[in-house]
Design a protein that fits this description.
four-stranded antiparallel β-sheet, 1 helix, mainly beta
Length: about 400
């Protein structure tokens, strides 16, 4: 009897110790989870603070990462491309990577080259000349020679190029594929369909918008024509918009494949390219000096220096009162880079200026180089990679 009682007591002590060990392990595991959770929370908080500080930081000067003497021709144009840039002059085209190293270059002969970039495609046309070149990130992929002089051109993300050509009183809008092969042509005249002021093509290249002016008797009319090339009949005029009260439409642009934006002297109008109906109209109060477009946004630059940024649906993203009117404005992702002869500035789409700086040498271009505070600074003498500080 006594032996049995001792056995029961020993078994009870063993079970009690086992339960205590399990409770200790559970407490340790719980403490470990809490510790890990605190560490993760702190890390996330620190990351958010760093991101917030970086996003809201402003810069007053810059340091030079690397510098090289400019050896290109006078009048060369620079355009952002894949964290590097495209340099184009009358003598050739060059792609420079994000590290400042040359990726490829080609030689050509143009009098007044103009660069248009959309997605991966680069189109270069000789304004008042007869040559069009198409490139991608690997180099040249197509070339076209036009019968008449080139007035302007646009390119789609698929590499289709629309060019306005001039022949005395007649104008032609020609479309070429990315290899430079001719696809179609639309003929216009000042006394007929009208003289093209600006053109735009959709991302897929299947829709073309043309703002025009034309004479009717002694009157001058203005409007926008919309063509669709995805139909069996080929190029088809599907809509004409003439509700601009005689104010010339200086700029047309597509957001994607459906939304068409037309900017006149006193309003901005959104149209559906599919239903050909007006979607929204925004009245302009003041004199607009420049209109610039990004992928899904655009900005009106007023003659006073003020800037209003709109989203692709017409919503106001920011309205900035600014006293300085710069000579050049360009969208790069979610920032606007602006420059004058001896100054530059960078503003994000919220309306906050990241930097405003004066320079000793004339500014030719300021091109993003990856991070928000890094740029290629091309001035009169040097091409420099800089870091805002």
């Amino acid at each position: 009897m006594t032996q049995n009682n001792d056995q029961n007591i020993g078994s009870y002590d063993f079970n009690d110790e086992l339960q205590q060990m399990r409770r200790k392990k559970a407490r340790k595991a719980r403490k470990r989870r809490i510790t890990i959770g605190v560490i993760v929370a702190v890390a996330v908080a620190v990351t958010l603070i760093v991101v917030f500080v970086q996003m809201n930081r402003s810069y007053s000067s810059y340091s030079i990462i690397s510098s090289e003497a400019r050896e290109d021709e006078s009048g060369a144009e620079y355009a952002f491309y894949k964290d590097g840039y495209i340099r184009c002059s009358g003598g050739g085209v060059e792609r420079v990577g994000s590290d400042g190293e040359k990726v490829w270059n080609t030689v050509h002969s143009m009098t007044s080259p103009s660069i248009k970039i959309r997605g991966n495609i680069i189109a270069i046309g000789d304004i008042n000349g007869n040559s069009i070149e198409v490139y991608d990130d690997s180099g040249i992929i197509g070339h076209a020679e036009t019968q008449f002089s080139i007035l302007q051109m646009e390119v789609s993300s698929d590499g289709l190029v629309a060019a306005v050509l001039q022949d005395n009183n007649d104008s032609y809008i020609n479309m070429y594929d990315k290899k430079g092969e001719y696809i179609y042509s639309i003929k216009t005249s000042i006394g007929g369909d009208g003289y093209p002021v600006d053109i735009a093509i959709s991302d897929d290249g299947q829709k073309l918008a043309v703002s025009y002016v034309k004479t009717t008797g002694k009157n001058l009319e203005t409007g926008v024509a919309l063509y669709d090339f995805a139909r069996d009949s080929g190029s088809e005029l599907v809509a004409q918009f003439n509700n601009f009260s005689g104010n010339p439409v200086g700029v047309v642009e597509f957001f994607g494949n459906d939304t068409l934006v037309a900017v006149s002297g006193n309003n901005v109008t959104y149209y559906s390219a599919d239903s050909t109906k007006e979607k929204k109209r925004i009245d302009i109060d003041g004199t607009v000096n420049k209109v610039i477009f990004g992928d899904d946004k655009f900005a009106l630059i007023y003659s006073t220096g003020n800037i209003t940024i709109y989203g692709s649906g017409g919503n106001v993203l920011s309205n900035v009162e600014e006293e300085t009117l710069y000579t050049d404005y360009r969208f790069y992702d979610n920032r606007i880079i602006m420059k004058s002869d001896t100054s530059f500035a960078v503003m994000d789409i919220s309306g906050k200026f990241v930097t405003k700086q004066d320079t000793e040498l004339p500014v030719l271009a300021l091109v993003p180089n990856g991070p928000k505070n890094r740029y290629f600074f091309i001035n009169e003498k040097f091409i420099q990679r800089i870091r805002l500080t």
